[in-house]
Amino acid sequence: MASTASSLRQAGRVRVVTFVDFLSCFGGAEHLALLIATRLDPVRFESILCVSRWPLTGPWKGDPSAPPAMELLEGSPARFLPLARRRKVDVGAVARLERFLRRERVDVLHTHKFGSNVWGTIAGRIARVPVILAHEHTWSYEGQPLRRFLDRELIARGADRFIAVSREDQRRMIEIEGIDPERTLFIPNGVLSSRPPSGHDVREELGISPDATVIGAVGVLRAQKALDVLLRAIPLLSEWPDARVLIVGDGPERTSLERLAKELGVADVVDFAGHRSDIPDVLSALDVAVSCSDFEGSPLAVMEYMDAQLPIVATAVGGVPDLIESGVHGRLVPARDPAALAAGIGEMLREPERASAMGARARERRRSEFDIATLVGRLEALYLELLSDSPR
Question: Exposed e or buried b for every residue in 214-226, given b needs 16+ CB within 10 A?
């Protein structure tokens, strides 16, 4: 017998709320949530992007990538729901979400990252949303016993599925957090195909010689990214005295990284370029791309490196081995090992033809296996499957 939710789906479009803390074109989870919400099939789905930390009125004065993100959202069929959450525990914001879910008779609530997973699961259950999905975009799974408890006892029990972006994250959910395996689901991330470079010469802009060796890393400058390891690897690259390191992005670790570069005596060869919107141009300026994180889920930056056909050296953590087979699509090295990172970079620079072939295979794999259209298609099928099985 068809459920009420299934009957509603047959009568019209499925109403889906994608729930995330911030609106941004930078940062993996936030960008991915934006891409999902704006690319659901408008014939079958009515999409609403709910952003908890966005004012109810007035302009946003935070992340510089928020305006282009809003421009992308406004150019899509998706609706926008801000909640004006001001603190970690904001009952008013959660109540606004619950009332919206109930009033609009939302069919699917898809939450992203820990805070939204917690509050979304609570609001969704109170509002009796037929299908609730929680999406974890990775963390270390170490320490923070309260977080592990809430993942296991609140989010995993309250959501119909707890999505992991890598097999390693799914394993840690089950083995470290004690979550029922039947509640978890692995769905790999996907990205858009990169825009072609505009032709702007980033090297010339930054005063880098056209003949210099340029090693780069793109991402939010937070502790997880372990960019201190890249800085410590620079003195070990003495075979390339002209080498420059380009670090693109901003975040809480920038000041400490700049200080460390001075302490190591490498500040004159490191460019902290800050947040940039011309990532295709940045990537075209690199000889080798690096991801040296302590832990990862399914990093979008690595997928962008793959799409740019760059030689990649990355730490073998989290879901990175799901993306890159070492020696085939790039080189994987142990985490927290500057010597191993330098050796991997050196291998790419000494064998440019082999490195180029790895980059070509990486691009082919990214486009065939890790595309945003593939991810959205998997999610659309999951929404419909769970909705048809829902008794609510």
Answer: bbbbbbbbbebbb
